[in-house]
Amino acid sequence: MWKPPERIRFAPARGRMPMADEARASRLFSPVRLGPLTLRHRTWVPAMVPWRSNEEGEVTEDVVQWYARFARGQPGAIVIEATGIRDVPSGPLLRIGDDRQVDGLRRLTRAVHEASGGRTRLLVQLIDFLRIRRRPEPRTFFERHLALTPALRERAGLRHLDEAAARAALLALGPEGWAQVLDPRDLQSLQFGARETVNDEHLPHIRALPAELPPLFAHAARRARDAGFDGAELHYAHAYTMASFLSATNRRSDGYGGTRAARVRLPLEVFAAVRAEIGPGWAVGCRFLAEECIAGGSGVDDSAWFGVQFARAGMDFLSTSRGGKFDDAKQPGIGQAAYPYTGRSGYECMPQYLSDARGPFGRNRDATARIRAAVREAGCDTPVVGTGGVHHFEMAEEMLERGECDIVGTARQALADPDWALKTWLGRASEVRLCEYTNYCEGLDQKHKQVTCQLWDRLELDEPGLRTSHDGRRRLVAPPWREAPALPEDAEPA
Ligand SMILES: Cc1cc2nc3c(=O)[nH]c(=O)nc-3n(C[C@H](O)[C@H](O)[C@H](O)COP(=O)(O)O)c2cc1C
Ligand code: SF4
């Protein structure tokens, strides 16, 4: 992963730790409405892909155990990882593209509701993504993938050679020659692996996205509702299809690209289709980027404007993230695919403890506050979820007090200690296992390995019946909080 050159070292802090009475009277532990849904607390576990599914994209026992463990910490809401809306092979990524997946997902929602005593609400993040290939061997690229166009032949002076000879001559040019004769897109495919973008309107399936995506999202949302989820988060963030429509880099010429109004058109049409499919009684919102953090990308003025459009359209919540784009990703090794969290924008998404003067904590606060202010100025009371480097009560409470957001997301802190919010609510914040922002978990995610936290994955490996990683070396869920008290009486289910 890219790291800021300053490499200033930051350590997490506990902040001011509230006694139980103060915690219970706090904003963080007060209820909030998301349209038809009420969260008991304003603590939120944002989507995190843990690579626990299988090649069929099914809910496995490991998926169930993973989320049940978060649920035992009783956050206000958990958002299930990015879940594919198409029924196509996607490696061990969870899928919701076919009715046959509903039973497994129902098992998951039941397990979470049970493990939290009915106190945690469960949403699913719905994702669509475009095709990306692994970085090819140069020989394979020149012999099989590269389109040998007349323009390329002309540029390379290969007009008179037959196809096989021309391809061999191109291969022999080597890196400097390739940089001179290949067009930028082909060069990128050679160096990074071919990647489709929403701008590829010459490809029929890319041209068809505005017609195809609304029903795909709508059917996925219907399945989620049937499976017992309390709501859905449309994934409009990071490097994926819907974020690419919102991006300032979207140059489509079909009325879905260019101006802000055109870029937000498909995201609004997707939402309208979802709403039409499931009606008003079920929570639907989206996650989108407060800032893309890439050259030529959307900034906070764009996202504040988008936020207002989403709120006016009737979304039940807005959740923000930042960065995480392919545009500035590091070059992958041969045979590997580019990963959108390896460049500067990836750092903005999941900042690490070696940072610049701004540090890794709360990097998205200002931009999220701008979005929320614009939404309020437009007369909408849509709740906004703010996430990024939050790991203690004082910071979360300050964000709420200042009106920067209405709900506080903690991804890695919840991974480090799924009981952090419960411990804090009980006045036992001193027992929280603090995330150190090492990004060991994110490194596993990058390799599509089962995600765990280095602070607990080697602990208590002799626990009876323990489920471990494929290599048997790591436990797959955080150890139980053995000192957890029986819940006090006012801990009624919401
Ligand atoms: C292992 C891992 C997987 C993630 N997967 C997703 C995902 O599926 N969808 C998403 O929107 N964000 C994903 N994220 C980003 C987090 O939701 C969150 O925005 C980010 O980690 C910053 O918040 P934090 O500082 O509280 O960790 C992932 C993060 C991690 C560490
Ligand atoms: S591995 Fe654990 S401590 Fe390190 S960043 Fe991830 S959650 Fe935090």
Describe this structure as you would to a colleague.
The chain is α/β, with parallel strands linked by helices and 494 residues long. The protein has 2 domains: 8-131 and 214-446, TIM Barrel; 138-192, no CATH class. The protein is built from 19 helices and 12 strands. The chain has helices at 20-24, 61-72, 102-115, 138-145, 150-156, 163-181, 184-192, 204-207, 209-226, 241-246, 260-263, 265-278, 300-313, 344-349, 365-377, 393-401, 412-416, 420-425, 440-446, and strands at 8-9, 32-34, 37-39, 43-45, 77-84, 121-127, 231-236, 283-291, 318-322, 354-355, 384-387, 407-409. It has an 8-stranded parallel beta barrel, surrounded by 7 helices. Strands 1-10 form a two-stranded antiparallel sheet. A two-stranded antiparallel sheet has the order 2-3. Helix 9 runs parallel beside helix 12 (265-278). The structure holds flavin mononucleotide and iron/sulfur cluster (SF4). Residues 46-49, 81-82, 125, 237, 287, 321, 349-350, 387-390, 410-413, 441-442, 445, 451 line the site of flavin mononucleotide (FMN).
The rounded Rg comes to: 23 Å
Strand order of the largest sheet: 4-5-6-7-8-9-11-12
State the total count of DSSP E strands: 12
CATH topology of the largest domain: TIM Barrel
Main sheet characteristics: 8 strands, parallel, barrel
CA distance, first residue to last residue: 40 Å
The portion of residues forming beta strands comes to: 5-15%
Estimated helix fraction: 25-40%
